[in-house]
Amino acid sequence: MYFLSFLGVILISALMMMLSTGGNGLVYFLDFPSALVILLFGSTILLSAGLLKDFNNAFRLVVGIRQEKENKVSEMELRRAVEAVRLAIKTMLTGGLFSFLFTCVLIMMQLNEPSKLGPMLAVGMLVLLYGLAVVLVLLPLEARLRVRLHDMTKE
Fold this sequence. Notes:
The chain contains 5 helices and no strands. It has helices spanning about 1-20, 30-50, 50-65, 75-110, 115-155. The protein is elongated, with a radius of gyration of 19 Å.
């Protein structure tokens, strides 16, 4: 079910991009360096907090690769997964905003060349957009982990 919601977010986003640009502007929303910046922010912070493994484990716990009957999931494992996803959400928001403000500083230094302002602002906004898109995907993941943890502690 989580995979279907993930697919739904992607399809809705693609539809919004196509409708807003007349059907041929999907390329305006694709920028590999911006996506790389967001991924580097997230992985670096999770790694430095010691939660990268727990973040990866969160997907396995929710998607169901790991069967609860075969391998009993501990409460600590769920708590660490929830904390890792919460940190990833905060990192995506903060990293996207940091990158956008960094780009704004660069834009302010280029005010004498108006032709560069639009493209530079668009790239800066894409990093923020990508960060928010990742948060949209992670919010249901966090909710499902919290529900599972709540059910476990309730028993």
